[in-house]
Amino acid sequence: MVQYIKIKNFGPIKEEVELNFESIFSEEISDEIYVSVMPDGARLLKLAYIYGANASGKTTILQAFAFIRKLLLRPIQDKSTGLGYEPFLFCENPYLNNSFFELAFYANFVRHIYTVNFVEAGILSEKMVFFHSAKPTELFSRETDMEKRVVKIQFGSKVKVTAKEKDRLESNTLHNNTVLGAFAKTNADIPDLNVLNIWLSGFLLGMISSNTDIVDDTAGMIATDTNANKWMNKFMNKADRQISRVNADKERSLRSLIFEDNYKHSDIKPSNILPQGSYRMATGTEAGKFYGEPVEFKRKVEFTHQTGDGSDYTLPLKVESSGTQRYFSLGGPLYKLVHGNHVLCIDELENSLHPDLMKHFLQTFLVNADQSQMLITTHNIALMEEIDFIRKDALWFSEKKEDGSVDLYSAADFDSSTLRKGASLINAYRAGRLGAKPNLGSPYIGQE
């Protein structure tokens, strides 16, 4: 689980900001569903929300998680490729300023702290430590000579790595790769890094934005997992009481069927051209090669509706409401969170969802997930009315400062003079006492 993340000089974030999942209040009525306790006693929240005006930097916090996932698990293959991000741009020579992340997390219940300094051209330095006691133990550290583009890696004294394996990893660690990213593409026997790579690969699910298409992923999951299909039936019935069943079957694409029909009476048969085992999976779509043309499959998602008279009607996903389609697509990631240990970022979760349905989605996660976490951005202030549901230490605000940079703070940071114990969060927010609101002024636009 994530304990905290610190971010500096990343997008509109200039000075260091920190988002922390540690529970500050130990006697909240929602502790039972909100908090997971680590072996060292740390109490970590499973859910955090970020509110703020448009262009206030909310999404950037989520993008930081996606970016660090890319650094650790998706290594760059070409020396000439940059890291692919923008630093804070409202300053002189922005690309000369270093950027910084620090991520504290519990992998297999052991606390780790990872720090990395970087610029667009590559990784300047990084370090990973872990805690089997109160004192940190170094796993590895790394320094880069950016002029020569040469990397030096140092392992901690308690980490067993042969000189041969160290040299092999070091030679594969390009200046624009992290150590763990390079390990992901290296045939090296370093048990400590292998365990961490496997854990991070499963834990970091990435980010879902409002335009992320994950329908195929969810459809593929329920098509191949009977338990997931049964779970999805119940899940979708909450969104629409008439939905009794969801199916996702393979359907050949029209282009493939037409192409195959052209060879129906030919001596050239697909079995003679298509090598056995040549299929591949890509974003939920199965594709192969058929005489230079793709033989594609997609999932045909259908919902069975049961009306009041007991009749069943089957409808394809595309004719369902946008809310039903959105809820179905989110069902796959939610199933993963409930049945595994992951962290997922969702931008503007409320898109196309009724406020009550959004709350039910979050409640389903909190009640059923164990070691998973979710970080969301939202404009749905109705959640703040739920004093028995939303917590001050889980509630974060992003606000743009005068210099164009982002400020990030928690509702728990306010003292009793601003936010009394038991006071209405939504009233305080509406009154502007918590900040992070659009400053719109008059609706009249003057004429020149």
Identify the notable features of this structure and list them briefly.
single chain; 448 residues; alpha+beta; Rossmann fold; 2 domains; 6-stranded mixed beta sheet; 12 helices; 27% helix; globular
Helix content: 25-40%
Low-confidence stretches: 265-295
- State the CATH topology of the largest domain: Rossmann fold
Instruction: Give the percentage of residues in beta strands.
Output: 25-35%
* Cα-based radius of gyration, to the nearest Å: 25 Å
Number of strands: 20
First CA to last CA: what distance? Answer: 55 Å
The level 1 CATH classification of the largest domain is Alpha Beta
Describe what you observe in this structure.
- With 448 residues, this protein is α+β, with helices and mostly antiparallel strands.
- The protein has two domains: 1-210 and 347-448, Rossmann fold; 215-327, no CATH class.
- Helices cover 27% and strands 29% of the residues.
- The chain is built from twelve helices and 20 strands.
- The chain has helices at 31-34, 58-73, 163-172, 179-183, 191-203, 215-224, 226-239, 254-262, 270-273, 322-339, 355-368, 425-430, and strands spanning 2-8, 17-20, 35-37, 43-45, 47-51, 99-107, 110-119, 122-131, 137-145, 150-155, 204-208, 243-252, 280-282, 285-290, 293-306, 312-316, 343-346, 373-377, 395-400, 406-410.
- The strands form four sheets. The protein has a seven-stranded antiparallel beta sheet with strand order 2-1-6-7-8-9-10. Strands 11-17-18-5-19-20 form a six-stranded mixed beta sheet. Strands 12, 13, 14, 15 and 16 form a five-stranded antiparallel beta sheet that branches.
- Strand 14 and strand 15 (293-306) form a beta hairpin.
- The protein is globular and about 75 Å long.
- The model is unreliable at 265-295 (pLDDT under 50).
